[in-house]
């Protein structure tokens, strides 16, 4: 499966400015901002584990599930880093080497982590979110890392028909959490009760997020959205919003290709003629077209809901991050009625 397209974040603003009609899809490289949550061996009834998580979207979830019985290192903990193009450092390789469990997103979102694991003489236990939820088909696996050429001759990366933003699916999040707890328990069986308690506490905290999703299903009935990128797609599906993003634009956004002028015009027409109730805008994106579409939405009095691909650096937890976005959406849908 071809690699997903990178976001254009502020560090690439100058480059983005040189393209007047270029889509910015999914991050830029920079300091990884690696973080480590230390275990508390004194409160752990079993073996303390070393766990490495590839990206921040799963880091907080794993930390909560591991509790006192694992030291959890999240390699890409900064929202300024692009997981798609990141290259593992020697320190990252060392962390993977020492890990007893590694949690990756998969679906070629964090291929560098999968490559690092494959290079190890002795592989740790791995929870691959994409494999857990079954989004990667055999065909996609065979196409992994394939490159495609843009019409302008530049190399780029595409999602290849698979949306890798798995953490936006409530069903997938719960399935991956269950798989993580099972692996933790298998690796440190004496701490089984601790991991069960952590999972129950995490599920209790998650309930506010699930309740908000449930409440939004009523507000979303018969309503539509359009999106500058596909990051929010799984959540939109979960609450029943209809995707009114013009197909040509959606394909371009997924493949980091330049949208045809007609696709942009169709998007703006949908915003202005009432076909779209909400514009979902990735605020971690830099690019003239997303900004143009946001301006068109505001001019047409279409509410704009800001989402992000990765956890903002100022958010306290995965659940708080998701809730803040759902509350924005709830306000937008309520205001449009």
UniProtKB/TrEMBL annotation:
Residues 139-152 have a biased composition (Acidic residues). It is found in: Cell envelope. Pfam families: ZnuA (PF01297). The keyword Metal-binding applies. Residues 192-219 form a coiled coil. One of its GO terms (biological process) is cell adhesion. InterPro entries: Bact_metal-bind_prot9, Lipoprotein_PsaA-like, ZnuA-like. It comes from the Bacteria. Keywords: Coiled coil, Metal-binding, Signal, Transport. Residues 137-164 are annotated as: Disordered. Residues 1-24 form the signal peptide. Belongs to the bacterial solute-binding protein 9 family. This is Zinc/manganese transport system substrate-binding protein. It comes from Modestobacter roseus.
């Amino acid at each position: 499966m071809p690699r997903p397209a990178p976001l254009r974040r502020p560090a690439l603003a100058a480059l983005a400015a040189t393209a007047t009609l270029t889509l910015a899809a999914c991050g830029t490289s920079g300091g990884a901002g690696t973080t480590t949550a230390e275990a508390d061996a004194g409160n752990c009834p079993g073996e303390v584990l070393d766990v490495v998580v590839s990206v921040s979207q799963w880091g907080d979830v794993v930390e909560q599930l591991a509790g006192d019985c694992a030291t959890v290192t999240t390699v890409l903990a900064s929202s300024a880093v692009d997981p798609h193009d990141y290259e593992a450092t020697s320190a990252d390789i060392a962390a993977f080497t020492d890990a007893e469990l590694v949690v990756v997103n998969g679906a070629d979102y964090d291929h560098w982590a999968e490559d690092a694991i494959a290079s190890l003489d002795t592989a740790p236990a791995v929870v691959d979110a994409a494999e857990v939820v079954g989004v990667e088909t055999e065909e996609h696996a065979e196409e992994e890392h394939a490159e495609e050429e843009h019409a302008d001759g530049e190399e780029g990366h595409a999602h290849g028909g698979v949306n890798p933003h798995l953490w936006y699916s409530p069903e997938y999040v719960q399935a991956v959490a269950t798989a993580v707890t099972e692996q933790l328990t298998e690796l440190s069986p004496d701490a089984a009760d601790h991991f069960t308690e952590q999972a129950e506490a995490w599920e209790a905290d998650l309930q506010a997020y699930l309740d908000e999703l449930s409440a939004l299903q009523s507000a979303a009935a018969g309503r539509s959205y359009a999106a500058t990128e596909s990051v929010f797609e799984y959540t939109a599906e979960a609450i029943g919003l209809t995707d009114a993003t013009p197909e040509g634009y959606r394909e371009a956004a997924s493949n980091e290709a330049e949208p045809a002028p007609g696709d942009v015009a169709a998007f703006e027409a949908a915003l202005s003629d009432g076909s779209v109730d909400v514009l979902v805008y990735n605020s971690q994106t830099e690019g003239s077209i997303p900004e143009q579409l946001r301006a068109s939405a505001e001019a047409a009095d279409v509410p704009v809901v800001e989402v992000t691909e990765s956890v903002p650096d100022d958010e306290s937890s995965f659940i708080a991050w998701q809730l803040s976005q759902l509350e924005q959406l709830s306000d937008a849908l309520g205001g449009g009625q």
